[in-house]
Model the fold of this input.
Amino acid sequence: MTDLVNIPSASLETATQPENLRRVAIDPLTRVEGHGKVTLLLDEHDRVHQVRLHIVEFRGFERFIQGRPYWEVPVMVQRLCGICPVSHHLAAAKALDVIVGARTLTPTAEKVRRLMHYGQILQSHALHFFHLASPDLLFGFDSDASRRNLVAVAQAYPDIIRKGVLLRKFGQEVIRVTAGKRIHGTGAIPGGVNKNVSRAERDALLTDIYQVIAWSREAVALARQLYEQDPALYGEFGTIRAHQLCLVRADGAMDLYHGGLRARTADGETLFDHVDYARYWEHILEEVKPWSYMKFPFLRALGPEQGWYRVGPLARVSLCDTIPTPFADHARREFLAYADGVAARATLGTHWARMIEMLHAAEVIKELLHDPDIHGEALVVQGERAERGVGVIEAPRGTLIHHYRVNEDDVVTRCNLIVSTTHNNQALNESIRQVARRYLDGRRLTEGLLNHIEVAIRAFDPCLSCATHALGQMPLAVELVDAAGQTVDRITRDVPTAC
Amino acid sequence: MNTFQLDGEEIPFEPGQTVIQAALAAGHYIPHLCYHPEFVPHGSCRLCTVRADGRPTAACTLPAQPGLKVESETEELNDLRRTLVQMLFAEGNHFCPSCEKSGNCVLQALGYDLGVLTAGFRHFFLDRPVDASHPDILLDFNRCVLCKLCVRASEEVDGKGVFSLAGRGIQRRLIVSAESGRLADTDVAVTDKAVEVCPVGVILRKRVGFRVPIGRRRYDLRPIRAQALEDAPRRPEHRHE
Done:
């Protein structure tokens, strides 16, 4: 029996005999407007036997949207998130376009929505890289905890942080112009938008766009430079072999607003391509595990054990055939070629991919600002009503699925949301297990080692990274509890007051 | 012309005018919710409570009288008004962030005007399903403040009597004149005055929510204090009989 306990299972998902192990809980981790925790089970030799990322909170949006009029949905569901509300706003609006029979939007509506979305991509990616991830990347994963925050980074690298803040500000301004507010606007409505972009608004944004593109190019260079500081570490840290999923345009190019679903295995084999997302459930199923409120989606063709996958910047930059803007596509080709593709498979390569997407967003915004259609007056269309609608969008953190059913009285009767972090659930778990295996196994718990777990989580920029990263202060309460239930050791950090 | 004093200023009035009518016509705002210049004053919300010769009373039902001394903009009265607004928010399910009336809502605008920064009271969180049975009109009972404007409009203008208030005290609620209790079984029409007059997000035209962008909604353009004064002189005035 003792021998069995001393051999950690290969997957680290479930220990063979958990009753004889001590439990270490990182609780709470936080996600966007929510909380999660990581638990580890260790034996007396500090060998790791089990690692799990639990999302402990129940949000309930899918339930309380039922019974509400459908036109309220895009405004209500965006309250899921304070960092990327536009993603939920637009995914819901796209689903409701189907329900109101708006098969093709007006050019103005389509382009104003795209402008809103790419503004969102820009601000969210800037926020993550500069505000949230930069302390780890610039100072080191186990650097002094008191320095791992935005203020310390701003003191050490004032120019980098200033540009990061201004990049995000620009993205937020694009959102304000298109949605009416920087956070939680109302721009997208079923069948179109409620406003166009005036020439004065366009001119104000054009003033800054070329600087934004230049800074975004610098950010790509910085992400690469950080990777190159320690390619061995960046290449292997938290890296997993994952299948990948994203939307691509009809010609295979990157399109973060609309497209068909593409999935490839970790070996690069195409599982499906250009799939109409209206029938996503034919390819993606969800599994429930007893230890987490977050579901585990998997690719139907591969089954629940082998079918887990990754979404987000790394998947998108890897899976698309091209990026349809010149600077970003050049950066994509360099990224894919780096060390024979090692960076494009590395969990920490996600930061680099994220900056390539930010550059792409800046370039798309420039193109749209020069498009006269954004000033058009035809804003809304509608046609034959449908009972069901699915809307899918590539949110900053990955593929986002909204699915609604609306009755003849205009009331929502069913809602299913599969958000980016849910897609990444198993990938996140696998990544932190890899880190635990590599860095924590057999060693005494320290704050710096704990931060290694956080660094792996942060690479995915999951929804829980919102408050996790607030000014570098990830709220943590870590307890060592022995088999008798006695607390042996405890490390805590304060919970931020807001995310 | 006869005058009365409002917060130390002489306010002219014509015989038959109420204090609130004369005040608004003279460019002085008194917060109000159930008062509407086109309808007989109801005096139920009490937001327009003033002190007239020291006695608290509703300005919408108080006939203006020569020499009357009225206090309105005092800390004491605005505290009371703020509390009343908080109680209205607590009694209903008012989720401004996802409400299509946001920016056009009198209750929300009063909250801003009176500086309501906290809930103040524990919310009731009542379960009030919407009535979506009518093809063109949605009834969201969650937001009713019992101002009775729809009742008055349906009776006095539309001549239909579609809406009514039933129950007493905390059980008081909006009902419709159909045995089934469903709006679809009444003769209400989307063009009725009763549909237009709702100051909050209870009686709504379907499928047009959020069509007006942020920045162009009624109270985005000017706060309720300025908007009420803008509206007052142009409205036909109802004389207090």
